[in-house]
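sry for the spam today, last one i promise. C-alpha cells for design, 251 residues
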C-alpha cells in the first residue's frame, strides 16, 4: 500500500508539473505574440508617419520649385519679347506680364521635375552634392543665370556663332562654379536637349517664332540657356532637399 500511494503521489505531482509547464509556456507564447503585435503596429505607424512626412516634403519642394520656375519664366520671357528675340501671334500676349499663358505653366512644371530629379539622382548614384551647400551660393547661381539670359538678349556680336560660343562658355562656367558634379552636368545636358527639341516642335507648329533663327527654327544659343537653367533649378532643388533632411535632425 505505501508503494502504491507513493506511486500515485509521484504521478499526480508530475502531472501537475507538466500542466504548470504547459500553462507557463502558453502564457509566455501569448505574451510574445502580444509584444510582436505591438511592435508590428508601432513599426507600421512609424513607417506611415515617415512616408507621410516624406510625401509632404516632396509636395512642398515641388510647389516651391514650380513657383520659382513660373517667376523666372515671366521675367526672362518678358526680356526676350522686349528685345524682339521671340515673336508670338497677335492676341496671345494679352496676359500677365505680357506673356503667353502656357509659358509660365510649362516652365514651372519643368522646374519642379528637374529640381526634384537632381537630389534623387545624387542619392541613387552615390554622389552627394557637397559643393557650396548654402543659400547664398544658390542666390548667386540664380543671378548668374539671369545675367546669361540678359546677355543673350542684349549683347550684339558679329554673328550668332560668337554669341553662342560665349554663352556656352558662361554656362559651363556656371556649372563649374556652382555644381561640379557629373550628375548635374549629365542632367543639364539632358534638359538642354529635351527642351530644345520641344522648342523646335513649338516653333515648327507656329506657336511662336524666333527672329534670325540659325539652328533649324531657333537660335543656336538656346541650348546654353536651357543647360544653365537646369543647373540653376537643380541647385535650388538640392538646397531644398538638404533643408528638409536636416530639419528633423535639428529638432
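last one done:
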Amino acid at each position: 500500500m505505501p508503494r502504491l500511494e507513493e506511486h500515485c503521489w509521484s504521478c499526480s505531482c508530475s502531472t501537475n508539473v507538466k500542466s504548470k509547464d504547459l500553462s507557463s509556456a502558453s502564457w509566455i507564447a501569448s505574451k510574445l505574440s502580444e509584444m510582436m503585435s505591438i511592435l508590428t503596429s508601432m513599426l507600421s505607424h512609424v513607417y506611415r508617419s515617415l512616408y507621410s512626412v516624406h510625401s509632404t516634403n516632396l509636395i512642398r519642394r515641388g510647389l516651391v520649385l514650380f513657383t520659382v520656375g513660373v517667376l523666372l519664366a515671366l521675367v526672362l520671357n518678358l526680356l526676350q519679347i522686349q528685345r524682339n528675340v521671340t515673336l508670338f501671334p497677335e492676341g496671345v500676349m494679352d496676359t500677365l506680364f505680357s506673356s503667353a499663358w502656357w509659358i509660365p505653366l510649362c516652365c514651372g512644371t519643368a522646374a519642379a521635375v528637374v529640381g526634384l530629379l537632381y537630389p534623387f539622382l545624387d542619392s541613387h548614384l552615390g554622389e552627394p552634392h557637397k559643393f557650396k551647400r548654402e543659400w547664398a551660393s544658390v542666390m548667386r547661381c540664380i543671378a548668374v543665370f539671369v545675367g546669361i539670359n540678359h546677355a543673350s538678349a542684349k549683347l550684339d556680336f558679329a554673328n550668332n556663332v560668337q554669341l553662342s560660343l560665349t554663352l556656352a562658355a558662361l554656362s559651363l562656367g556656371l556649372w563649374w562654379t556652382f555644381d561640379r558634379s557629373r550628375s548635374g552636368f549629365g542632367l543639364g545636358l539632358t534638359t538642354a536637349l529635351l527642351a530644345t527639341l520641344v522648342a523646335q516642335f513649338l516653333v515648327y507648329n507656329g506657336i511662336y517664332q524666333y527672329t534670325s533663327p540659325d539652328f533649324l527654327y531657333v537660335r543656336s544659343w538656346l541650348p546654353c540657356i536651357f543647360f544653365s537653367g537646369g543647373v540653376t533649378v537643380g541647385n535650388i532643388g538640392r538646397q531644398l532637399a538638404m533643408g528638409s533632411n536636416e530639419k528633423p535632425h535639428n529638432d
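Residues 60-250 form one domain. ok im logging off now
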